[in-house]
């Protein structure tokens, strides 16, 4: 299901919820759109309607007004859902609280394989929450983060989780305000990790120091084959 862009409103949401509440065969739900009212959080009732869904395998949703409340509702879905394996969520107002809710829900989740987050209000706290998730989760193989202010502290949190993770084979951290200190922390974990195959770190704030650390990590890694 694809939503028409750029104009969504509450009526569209109600119609979508009505369809989802009756549908028993839909596997892919992909919606995106822009709103005139930034305070309007599209999708809260949408995620509420998915709590008992057992057919969807893919959710890919981006609304510019999507924020922490929607992410918290998605987290409730993830705690009990056994069919979703691909989850992408993004919004201009998605920040630490929403990401932390998702990360906590995924600690014990055994079906999600791919997690992607676009959250322009993410700070280092979001990175630390995701790092803690990586310590516990044993099924996610791909983690993608875009357009947040993860920073060095957040990157260090992710690196700490990565050092204990044995299932992740791809990680993308793009445009996330990471400097050399955070990149060096990631490099140390990458060098020791034996499952990671793909690392994407474009559009961050690293100098030759950070670049050299990553290059050296690639040389030491027994699994990484794409940078």
TrEMBL record:
Q: Which InterPro entries did the record assign?
A: Leu-rich_rpt, LRR-containing_regulator, LRR_dom_sf
Q: Which Gene3D superfamilies match?
A: Ribonuclease Inhibitor
Keywords noted in UniProt: Repeat
Q: Does the keyword Repeat apply?
A: yes
Does rRNA processing count among this protein's keywords? no
What is the name of this protein? Answer: RNI-like protein
Species name:
Nematostella vectensis (Starlet sea anemone)
């Amino acid at each position: 299901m694809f939503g028409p862009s750029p104009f969504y409103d509450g009526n569209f949401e109600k119609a979508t919820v009505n369809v989802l509440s009756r549908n028993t065969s839909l596997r892919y739900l992909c919606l995106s759109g822009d709103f005139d009212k930034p305070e309007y959080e599209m999708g809260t009732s949408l995620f509420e309607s998915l709590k008992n869904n057992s057919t969807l395998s893919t959710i890919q949703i981006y609304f510019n007004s999507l924020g922490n409340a929607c992410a918290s509702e998605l987290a409730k879905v993830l705690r009990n859902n056994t069919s979703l394996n691909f989850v992408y969520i993004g919004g201009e107002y998605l920040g630490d609280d929403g990401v932390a809710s998702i990360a906590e829900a995924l600690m014990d989740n055994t079906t999600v394989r791919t997690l992607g987050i676009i959250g322009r209000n993410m700070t280092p706290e979001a990175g630390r929450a995701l790092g803690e998730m990586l310590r516990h989760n044993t099924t996610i193989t791909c983690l993608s983060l875009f357009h947040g202010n993860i920073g060095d502290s957040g990157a260090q949190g992710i690196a700490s989780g990565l050092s204990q993770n044995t299932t992740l084979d791809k990680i993308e951290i793009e445009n996330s305000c990471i400097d050399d200190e955070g990149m060096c922390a990631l490099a140390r974990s990458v060098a020791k990790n034996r499952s990671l195959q793909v690392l994407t770190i474009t559009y961050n704030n690293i100098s030759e120091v950070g670049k050299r650390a990553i290059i050296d990590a690639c040389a030491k890694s027994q699994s990484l084959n794409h940078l």
